[in-house]
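Lecture notes, part 5. Sequence design as translation. It can be helpful to think of inverse folding as translation between two languages: the language of shapes and the language of residues. The source text, in structure tokens, appears below.
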């Protein structure tokens, strides 16, 4: 491993052991043309959906394949989260709802230009999996499920939407997902399906509630080595070139951050742009001739 992040990790006392939705191939070109039009500035009014108000600024060179890199479980290991925030590309960082010091950590990430998700703990198919406090469970009474959803959504501000932590059982349960989507719709948030099960009903539930939805294409670090992460990043590139966009999910592990640090400098030559998650959502909606969507000039400042 080389580079400042890798060097920092090398000297760390911390132990190291630890498609579905693909944007149309023309989406990046449509989005670039939209951004070039006069008057397309970030919506400042409080009534704008949360996924618009808190979207990160769009990078240049959108007339090429794009990849959104999502880092889950952020905030639990605060040192590795700080290293992730230092990465010089617009990542989408999903902060665990029950992490400590969330306001400070999220504020630092937004100030660095990253986009933010709330990483929402949900019930896994394996009931022995530890999902954490106030996790969303399928067997809860309606009032308790609603209380837990609101507890999680109220943990901090400035995020564009949520994605599931675990959730192979919860995301396959239609009534439970309908309850969640109703709450997300009320706040104007998007849902990113991490696709921890092929039986997910997230897309149908989101559509019925009017919630914007995206889904993961690639997991980066199921195999916990830098080499494997690099191979998965290459898969994400292939998907982006074939279909216009790809969404890759990883974690702020030492090996993942080192692989990203080594991968990013060559993207310009390879014709790939890293974008915030909402850039892919915007391009999809524009390509489908949906409503005009205000773009963001947000520099990441906490609001």
């Amino acid at each position: 491993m080389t580079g400042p992040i890798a060097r920092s990790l090398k000297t760390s006392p911390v132990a190291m052991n630890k498609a579905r939705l693909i944007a149309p191939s023309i989406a990046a070109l449509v989005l670039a043309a939209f951004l070039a039009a006069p008057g397309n500035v970030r919506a400042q009014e409080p009534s704008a959906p949360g996924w618009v108000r808190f979207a990160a600024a769009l990078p240049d060179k959108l007339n090429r394949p794009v990849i959104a890199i999502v880092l889950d479980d952020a905030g639990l290991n605060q040192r590795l989260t700080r290293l992730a925030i230092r990465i010089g590309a617009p990542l989408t960082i999903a902060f665990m709802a029950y992490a400590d010091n969330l306001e400070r950590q999220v504020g630092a990430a937004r100030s660095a230009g990253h986009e933010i998700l709330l990483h929402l703990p949900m019930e896994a198919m394996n009931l022995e999996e530890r999902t954490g406090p106030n996790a969303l469970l399928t067997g809860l009474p309606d009032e308790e499920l609603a209380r837990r959803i609101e507890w999680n959504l109220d943990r901090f501000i400035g995020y564009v939407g949520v994605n599931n932590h675990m959730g192979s059982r919860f995301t396959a349960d239609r009534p439970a997902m309908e309850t969640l989507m109703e709450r997300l719709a009320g706040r104007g948030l998007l849902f990113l399906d991490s696709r921890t099960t092929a039986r997910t009903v997230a897309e149908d539930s989101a559509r019925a509630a009017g919630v914007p939805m995206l889904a993961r294409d690639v997991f980066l670090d199921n195999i916990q080595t830098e080499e494997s992460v690099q191979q998965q990043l290459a898969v994400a590139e292939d998907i982006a070139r074939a279909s216009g966009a790809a969404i890759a999910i990883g974690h702020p592990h030492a090996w993942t951050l080192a692989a990203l640090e080594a991968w990013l400098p060559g993207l310009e030559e390879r014709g790939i742009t890293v974008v915030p998650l909402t850039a892919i959502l915007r391009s999809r909606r524009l390509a489908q001739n949906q409503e005009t969507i205000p773009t963001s000039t947000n520099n990441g400042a906490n609001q």
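The translated text above is only one of many valid answers, since several sequences can fold into similar shapes. Confidence is low (pLDDT under 50) at residues 11-44, 292-303.
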